[in-house]
UniProtKB/TrEMBL annotation, chains A, B:
Entry EC no(s): 5.1.99.6
The organism's taxonomic lineage, starting at the top: Eukaryota, Fungi, Dikarya, Ascomycota, Pezizomycotina
InterPro entries with a match to the protein in the record: YjeF_N_dom (IPR004443), YjeF_N_dom_sf (IPR036652), YJEFN_prot_NAXE-like (IPR032976)
Organism whose genome encodes this protein: Monascus purpureus
Main localization, broad class: cytoplasm
Protein name: NAD(P)H-hydrate epimerase
Protein's UniProt keywords contain Translocase: no
Length: 237, 237
């Protein structure tokens, strides 16, 4: 199964529609998005493969998805830790932080140090609204994610990539290729440069929204909140 | 696996703690509770067993859980319909209704008529805060749920049952025994009168909340939002 891509502009309009017409709150959408991220982590990297998950969160909603995912990962028995160098201002992010504090999930001050003991990194730095340029400390983080042997799962887009044009021609991110990507609601155009395992999450779209944005209807299996693209619901390529 | 029960008063205090100390919003908690209900439906009654699910919603948060569950059931490929004779006033319930309207999930005016074509009924009328007495139209609904051959899954408690003392001695509910019950966050004392399949949902408790209320830590398997009580994580009795 493959799926049409949605532009950055349309993805923003779709999110707005979900809230203004669809009746969803950001709390709900982020909960379901983050839950789908946690299921993708479990699928590619079950706890038996190593429980130390370093979740790197950016200042916007992509980072919020990472915070939600980390909470679910803690409930699954992983030991997530959060690197959140530029905190967003929304009150929701503060509540998501509280939820993690209450599960004793640590917020770590040093990415380089945390990476040493990580079994997997969740890249929840930037999503479909990223327009560059990268500002500190993110160029350094991207460079480390480029060169590490620790597997990386990116949320919505590999951070540093242009949503339309893919990896930058040079500098941090030019050689960044996460092992796994989970697109939220629909793939972004940059997925054509992506060569790893690709999941879709965000099982809350309606027929009218799919039609409005010219998207295909993904076939999620069972009660799963994710579907692997390039593989059908029965797991066949 | 069995699990200690929580009183109605403690269940209310626990919900308050989750929001006031835990940083959760009602939107988030209801999303996860309703999601767990939908997973229990799928477990006991997969779509191949019949897709017409009649969700009966009461005026409070139990009804809200039912509305969320119905949305997820629609996403799983079921044909849910909603009977919602006394709508609650919270703005959230209106938004949950909008989400269902946008999925073309019908709100039906006649329970008796809807029951004729139902393959399963979700009883989301009353939860842990029920203190009786039943007011119309619910006595009639309970009587029909008592005598129907359509299987019933109750959310948090069989509606009409006293949360402490179980089924009423006489009148509507005296012979009400749903096939399935999903307890949310923790079983209520009335479960000792329940003889069907019993699930637990609400995978968001922290160690400190479990300790504060003297609850056991349930072992949810994998990424599941439900665990069957009386059966361990590997499915053994």
């Amino acid at each position: 199964m493959s799926m049409k891509a949605i532009s950055s502009k349309d993805a923003a309009a779709l999110d707005k529609d979900l809230m203004e017409i669809g009746g969803f709150s950001l709390d709900q959408l982020m909960e379901l998005a983050g839950l789908s991220v946690s299921q993708a982590v479990y699928r590619v990297h079950p706890p038996s493969a190593g429980k130390n998950i370093l979740v790197v969160c950016g200042p916007g909603n992509n980072g919020g998805d990472g915070l939600v995912a980390a909470r679910h990962l803690a409930q699954y028995g992983y030991y997530p830790s959060i690197y959140y160098p530029k905190e967003g201002k929304k009150e929701l992010y503060q509540r998501l932080k509280t939820q993690l504090h209450n599960l004793s999930v640590p917020f770590v001050p040093d990415f380089t140090e945390a990476l040493k003991s990580a079994d997997l990194v969740v890249d929840a730095i930037f999503g479909f609204s990223f327009g560059g340029p990268l500002r500190e400390p993110f160029p350094s983080i991207i460079l480390q994610m480029e060169s590490t042997s620790v597997p990386i799962l990116s949320v919505d887009a590999p951070s540093s990539w242009d949503i339309q044009a893919g990896p930058p021609k040079e500098g941090p991110g030019a050689k960044f290729m996460p092992q796994t990507l989970i697109s939220l609601t629909a793939p972004k155009p940059c997925v054509k440069y992506f060569t790893g395992r690709h999941f879709l999450g965000g099982r809350f779209l309606t027929k009218s929204i799919l039609e409005k944005y010219g998207l295909d209807c993904p076939q999620y299996p069972g009660v799963d909140q994710i579907v692997e693209l390039g593989v059908d619901a029965e797991g066949r390529l």
